[in-house]
Amino acid sequence: MSPPGYDARMTRIEKEQVAALEIGRYAGPIRLVTGAVELERALTELRRERVLGFDTETRPAFRPGESYPPALVQLAGEHAVYVLQLRRHDFSAAIAELLGAAAIVKAGVSVADDLKSLKKVMPFEERSVVDLGTLAKRAGVKQSGVRNLAAMFLGFRIPKGKKTSNWAAAHLSPAQLGYAATDAWACRELYLDFEKKGWLEKANPPLASSLPPLSGGRQSG
């Protein structure tokens, strides 16, 4: 499904066009990872992936000078989205492994901000990380946020309802988990779409030359 008025040369979308779209939410399995046993199961699956949608969530700050460390890391694979709850377990070794794995693409939006925040609480060196907003801009797209990109290229509207949730809470609601999973899933879907468009090859320098080949197609939902 494409947004009203969409064509292959689309470089921006108006708010009215976005509002006219149906809401899109991730409808597949969400694996909440809170401890060592769940982490080992998640790693078994995540190590097999060739492209992961990547995102983080941080407790919002409302006062001047107030800030919080990342509370969640979301990794969307072909068959499930994994949500690592950072307050519940030490995930530093696992996150360093996955973000540093050259054979696994990590695709997100504004990834520099996510990586900067994570590096304040754990050491790692990232490899094969792709910023979809930067990739879209290089292709002539004027808007680079995940919601605008999803509207333009995936044809659905991502709701904003849970953006100001307390992501550091010990227990997350199904609505919170669904929100967190959707952004990561959308990033994976956008990467697959951009790859089909040949945008990795057109990047300067070409991204495709240093990234592994993709396996697996779009996830339904």
Question: Would you write up a description of this structure?
Answer:
The protein is of the alpha/beta class and 221 residues long. It has one domain: Ribonuclease H-like superfamily/Ribonuclease H (Nucleotidyltransferase, domain 5, 2-Layer Sandwich), CATH 3.30.420.10. The chain is 34% helix and 14% strand. Strands 1-4-3-2-5-6 form a six-stranded mixed beta sheet. Strand 5 (105-108), helix 4 and strand 6 form a beta-alpha-beta unit. The longest helix has 24 residues, at 174-197. It is globular, with a radius of gyration of 17 Å.
- CATH class type: Alpha Beta
- State the helix count: 8
What is the CA-atom radius of gyration, in angstroms?
17 Å
State the major sheet: 6 strands, mixed
Examine the coordinates and then state which fold CATH places here, giving the name of the CATH topology.
Nucleotidyltransferase, domain 5
Shape verdict: globular
| Percent helix | 25-40%
How far apart are the first and last residues' alpha carbons, in Å? Answer: 13 Å
**Major sheet: order of its strands?**
1-4-3-2-5-6
So what's the oligomer here? single chain
**Average predicted local confidence, pLDDT:** 87
Instruction: List unreliable stretches of 5+ residues.
Output: 1-7, 215-221
What share of residues are in beta strands? 5-15%
What is the ordering of alpha helices and beta strands? HEHEEEHEHEHHHH
Structural class: alpha/beta
Q: At CATH's second level, what is the architecture?
A: 2-Layer Sandwich
The overall number of domains is 1
Number of strands: 6
Q: Could you name the CATH homologous superfamily?
A: Ribonuclease H-like superfamily/Ribonuclease H
